[in-house]
Write a structure and sequence with these properties.
The structure holds 2 protein chains of 2 kinds. The N and C termini of chain A lie far apart (about 80 Å). In chain A, the strands form 2 sheets. Chain A has a 5-stranded mixed beta sheet, with no helix packed on it. In chain A, strands 3-2-6-7-10 form a 5-stranded antiparallel beta sheet. By secondary structure, chain A is of the alpha+beta class. Chain A is elongated, with a radius of gyration of 22 Å. Chain A contains 2 helices and 10 strands; from the N terminus they run E-E-E-E-E-E-H-E-E-E-E-H. Chain B starts with a helix and ends with a helix. By secondary structure, chain B is an all-alpha fold. Chain B is built from 4 helices and no strands. Classes of the chains: A alpha+beta, B mainly alpha. At the A-B interface, strand 3 and helix 1 of A face helix 1 of B.
Amino acid sequence: MNEVNIKVTGGIKLNPIIFVDGKQLKVKKNQFGSLQATYTTDKDTIELSICKYLELSGKFWFLFAILFFIISIFGILNPFYDRKCIVIDSQHIIKLKEKTDVNIIFKNMVDQGQAVEIKTENEVEEIKNIYYVDKKVKKRWIILIVTQVCVWVALIITAITLLATK
Amino acid sequence: MEEKIVQEKKEDKKIYKSTLTKNLAMMYSVRLGKILFNLSIVCLILCGATLATALATGVIFIFGLIFIILSLGTVFVYFPNYFDALLSSGDFFAKISSFLLQAFPYLIAIGIIGAIASIVFLALDKNEKHVARITIASIILVLSVVIVIVSLVQSGGAA
């Protein structure tokens, strides 16, 4: 059995989702604020993937967005959606020893920039490792903002009309 | 070989979809929790405003009268409509106070429900711990319950 100790430094606010061999890794915050997890496997290598989901990437994104917009009194109490729409596409293959320490360090979030740095004593093969703007989600974000502005304009016009008729 | 690759891709897509659904559900629950937390704060502020406007009506009137006494009535020489202005400002606050008093039970109910729901939804988040929000929501909940108990005792005493 090979044991892998995975530690994530920085980028915790990005809410990264870590997959090892296609399974989501359950990570826990340690006393220093870093994420940590231990994975055991019989294999000699593991495939480490990191990704980030955006709220507007779901199938029913518009339905939920409008629902939250209404619940939050027309967006007044609604937290902002991620404006940058940057996601992570990172995949590495790591060769294992009996005990392997893997430290994942997140880089600054820049479009087309390097996403993470993998620090380990073992051999690492990088397949992809990039931050990129999810254009589909960005488009959805713009649609949502336009819709919200339209609703607000309609509300203001209705309010003015009602006040004028009184 | 090709079949194997296609099958692997299909499996990857399946895993991606299932994790996406789980994570999205968590994100939505956190967003709902944050909205309800904000709502409970607004409700508590409005409840406080009810009390403040009720107090303000009395306080303005008392300070206005004290000012008349301290100025030995000379205020009427400089401001002939002083008393009318004092009464009208008192009326204004009384109107707001009566409106807020009517809405008070609904506000407190929404506040309590919002605080409880926000604690539940925020506690569901496995990626991030919302310690500050959950603590504040708990304080709001306790304050709201205390306000309800006090108002119930007062109304019981009045009856």
